[in-house]
Amino acid sequence: MRNTEILVLAVPLAACSVVVMGAVGDSLLEQPCGTVPIRKFKIVGGHDAHVASTPWMAMVTGQAGFLCGGSLIASRFILTAAHCVGNKKLKVRLGVLDQEAEAQEFDVDGMFLHTGSELGKHDIALLRLAKPVQYDDNISPICLLLDPLFKDLDEHIVKFRTYGWGQTQSKDSSRMLQKTSLFNLRRTECTKQFPYQEIDRSHICAERAGASTCSGDSGGPLTAIVTYGHVPTVFQFGVTSYGAENCSKATVFTNVMAHLEWIVNTVRVSGNF
């Protein structure tokens, strides 16, 4: 790793922001990434997202239509939940937030599930696009922080943002991408809500009164703003995995930081770099 002069972690300056001082070097999976304007603009208790603030958001679709959310992390790779992927032909739509709008659509020519994925554990997968994405104002990747010095950075985030096209208060799937904020929840407290699930370092839990993910939000990203290399940047920390059936409790996310080695190895071995 180059230029690793690091080293200050300031926690937290704002409700959903931390500052990490250090040179970018090889610490990001893809560059540039996450450098879009952050706008404070349904997920239950959520609001419409804005296309310019979510250029990494992906729709994963099958023959019957929309399946799950996902995130663009490199020019040929989408990060999503393993339970969204099966023996089916998938496509990915990028660059729009309206499910019914025209979008750039990409065939998926490779599906990579974490070998340990089962029963809410390691619920993470990568989809390889048949051709590279050409980045523009509406399509660009989210950041993944590879620096091992900050492998526990998720522990310091107070408030996350999450996105999806899942059910809203009306119980219908949302046509427009929704966003909401959720607060980091201690795993010990999260376990009380899901006593029959093993919740450990491979998970992140988050909740907020009156807001939650719901059916259809699976695979979408859990994000936070991190000032890294002096630039406020959107980083992905989780992948939406599961929650309560009535969408009223915490959401359990697959912890991206705990799966970085698998993500990087899969992307690089598959020929993206």
TrEMBL record:
Principal cellular location given in the protein's record: secreted
Keywords recorded for this protein, A-Z: Disulfide bond, Hydrolase, Protease, Secreted, Serine protease, Signal, Zymogen
Classification via CDD domains: Tryp_SPc
GO CC field: extracellular region
Domain of life: Eukaryota
Gene Ontology biological-process entries: proteolysis
Family affiliation: Belongs to the peptidase S1 family. CLIP subfamily.
Listed name of the protein: Peptidase S1 domain-containing protein
Gene name in the database record: Dere\GG20767
